[in-house]
Structures are given as C-alpha cells and as structure tokens.
Write a structure and sequence with these properties.
5-stranded parallel β-sheet; single chain; alpha/beta; 5 strands; about 50% helix
Amino acid sequence: MKLTVYLAGEIHSNWREDVKKIAKENDLPLHFVGPQTEHAVSDDIGEKILGEQPNKLYKDEAASNINNFRTQILMQKADAMIALFGEDYRQWNTAMDASAAITMNKPTIIIRPESLIHPLKELSNKANITVESVDQALEVLRYVYE
C-alpha cells in the first residue's frame, strides 16, 4: 500500500527533501505532494494565467485563487498530512493547510518545536499527533505498515 502525504510548511528550507530522503532510506512506500515551493512561481501564477492585474491586491487575489485550487486538489487526493511549523517564518499558510486537512478528516501530523507548544495548542489538540521532529513524524507513518 502506497500512501500519498501532503507536506505543508514553510518553503524556505529543505525540510521536504529531508522527509523524502528519510522515507527512501527506510523503504517507506510514500508519495509526497505539497504547495508550490518556488515563491516567484506561486506569486506570479495569477498573472501568468489571467494576464496582468490592475494592482497588487488583484495580483495576490488571482494567485491565491489558483494556488488554493491546486492545494485543494492535492490535499483531497492525499491520504495524510505532515504540517511543519518552524521558528523562523510566519506560517499562516501552514496553519490554514493543517486546519483544512483536519476539517477534511485527513490524518494529520504536526511537527513543531517546543517554543510553539502554546501558540499551536488548539491546532495540536485537533491533529492526530504532534511531534517535534521530521524523524518522529516518519516513525508515525512507519508504524502504519507494522
């Protein structure tokens, strides 16, 4: 059985590659999907498809509509979600994606450092499990196959 896992979280570090590497090293039959990780592509997709917009508000609105469409499709097809919250970036999209997955009854693993226990307490309470590392998240997924 191969599971599809949506990887929600900041796009500025290589944490997704770490997840994929660890999964491969452990022969876990996982396929990964997630948000557009090239910031410029994500920001410019609205104008690329719909043409130049009259101002920044409409540019962001057009890009958001298309990015949300993409996210919804990939999230609906995913079997589970890993949502990584780090300490370095504002993570509104991660919180939105995790909330959407929980609402859709997708099994959800939240990764967050100890410093975010309090700010993420309600979201962690709604997730299936909250861990502190990528390794722990993959251990949870490995357990599915035992």
